[in-house]
Design brief:
Layout lengths: L1 H13 L3 H12 L4 H8 L5 H40 L18 H15 L3 E2 L5 E2 L1 H4 L10 H5 L17 E2 L4 H11 L3 E10 L10 E11 L4 H16 L6 E8 L2 E12 L6 E2 L4 E11 L1 H6 L8 E8 H9 L13 H5 L17
Parallel strand pairs: 1-4
Antiparallel strand pairs: 2-3, 4-5, 5-10, 6-7, 7-8, 7-9, 9-10
Helix pairs in contact: 1-4, 2-4, 3-4, 5-11
The chain binds ligand 2U9.
The site of ligand 2U9 has 20 residues, from helix 8, strand 5, strand 9 and strand 10.
Length: 357
């Protein structure tokens, strides 16, 4: 019996892992284990022998079971210690910085423009980017033979074979949005239409997709004087220049009559552009009184109503306001320039220029 004890207690102490320990348990105290077989022998012993061997065998079985349990706990401890050693985590390491998104200058400037015109009672209208040629051209007093159709560098959609109707176009300006707004709301109306427009043109100052905001105000007696005040008020708020000076130059657009291009006072002194001071002028938008034919296309009676319209390029306004020299930065997948020009994720524009959540 002592041999047995030594054999198993020693083997249990040396067991390398749980499967080895289980193997020993089966060999010693399992149903067919050595100790169990010896206990079965008790039945064949004399009462005296049994009295002597019974307690010894029970004690041996208990001793082996305790050794098994103790070794099992020790193995589990060792496994845990090994995991703690292997899966060690340095909680003092600095966190990995997460790349933070930033608002795009065109989105920010669109929000700024929208807020300024909202303050003057303009609502925002949106419309489709794929337009019929009627909404994009005819309704704006640009008939098929008009040279402006060529000047717009239009992208045409394709028609199915045998379909001879004029093709749809990618809108070349947001003006069709205002035609739709006039048809839906009637007069009086005060809307701006910001959004994407498309022209087949690409160089340092032109991209095939760019952004415009156009405005429209129709009432009983809205005049060029109202136009002048609204645009001055807009430029004062947008460029943050008090007493901003604008210059109206006679021009021509098919959809307005009379028409004017509008310049803002600026200076190029020292090679950098300053808006609102100096002796130079910078063209920033086009405008005019809505042509009677355009009012009619919008379902508004030109003998009862009149008003002004204007249009400007948002990308260009963003470049001017934030000093971004190259339009193509807007399409660069390397976004470091955004931070360079001070655009951060938290910059949400408000009329007061404060932070809002
Ligand atoms: C309706 C009637 C009239 C919008 C106008 C301009 C003049 C203009 C250019 C500015 C820079 C386009 O992005 S740009 O190249 N726009 O000069 N836009 S008047 O006139 C309208 C619009 C809608 C119903």
């Amino acid at each position: 019996m002592d041999d047995l004890r030594q054999k198993y207690i020693g083997a249990i102490a040396d067991a390398a892992d749980e499967p080895a320990l289980e193997e020993l348990r089966l060999q010693a105290v399992g149903k067919k284990g050595e100790v169990s077989l010896m206990m079965r022998e008790l039945g064949r012993m004399t009462p005296d022998e049994r009295q002597e061997m019974g307690p010894k065998l029970n004690a041996l079985k208990d001793e082996i079971n305790s050794a098994l349990a103790a070794k099992k706990a020790a193995l589990a401890d060792a496994a845990l210690n090994e995991r703690l050693r292997a899966e060690w985590l340095d909680v003092t390491l600095p966190g990995r910085p997460r790349r933070q998104g930033t608002i795009h200058p065109v989105s920010q400037v669109t929000d700024e423009i929208t807020a300024i015109f909202a303050d003057m009672g303009f609502s925002v209208a949106e419309g489709p980017q794929i337009e019929s040629d009627w909404f994009n051209f005819d309704a704006l007093n640009i008939p098929p033979e008009h040279p402006a159709r060529q000047e717009h560098d239009t992208f045409f959609m394709s028609r199915a074979e045998g379909d001879d109707r004029p093709p749809h176009v990618l809108r070349t300006h947001t003006s069709p949005v205002q035609i739709r707004a006039m048809q839906e709301t009637g007069a009086p109306i005060r809307v701006i239409a910001p959004g994407r427009v498309y022209r087949c043109d690409y160089d340092q100052t032109h991209t095939p997709m760019f952004h415009q905001v156009e405005g429209l105000a129709i009432g009983r007696d809205i005049s060029m004087a109202n136009l002048k005040w609204v645009l001055e008020e807009f430029c004062r708020a947008f460029f943050e220049v008090e007493g901003v000076e604008l210059r109206f130059r006679a021009s021509h657009f098919p959809f307005t009559e009379p028409s004017a291009e509008v310049d803002i006072r600026c200076s190029w002194a020292g090679g950098s552009l300053k808006i609102g001071e100096g002796d130079d002028w910078l063209e920033i938008l086009g405008s005019g009184m809505v042509h009677p034919k355009v009012l009619k296309a919008g379902g508004i009676d030109p003998d009862q109503w009149q008003g002004f319209a204007f249009g400007m390029g948002i990308d260009r306004l963003a470049m001017l306001k934030y000093g971004i020299p190259d339009l193509r930065a807007f399409f660069d997948s390397d976004l470091r320039w955004l931070r360079h020009y001070g655009f951060s994720a938290l910059d949400v524009p408000t009329l007061q220029g404060g932070l809002s959540v």
